[in-house]
Task: inverse folding
């Protein structure tokens, strides 16, 4: 970075402040984390629940009712 003084005669402290402000303004911020997907908009929710009440009466399924 090259700084040229076109008017006035700043002292070393004033030039140091200008350099610090300019270098702080040109720093790159880290990239933001991608937003988390809400459970309401999750595409997997449209597939349906495989362990619902309908499967509870089917034989051979986990948690199925035993009818005698």
Result:
């Amino acid at each position: 970075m090259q700084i040229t003084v076109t008017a006035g005669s700043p002292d070393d402290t004033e030039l140091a402040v200008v350099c610090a402000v300019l270098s702080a303004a040109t720093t790159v911020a880290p990239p933001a984390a991608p937003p988390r997907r809400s459970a309401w908009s999750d595409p997997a929710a449209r597939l349906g629940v495989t362990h619902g009440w309908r499967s509870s009466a089917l034989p051979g399924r986990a948690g199925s009712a035993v009818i005698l």
Notes: Helices lie at 12-25. The longest helix spans residues 12-25.
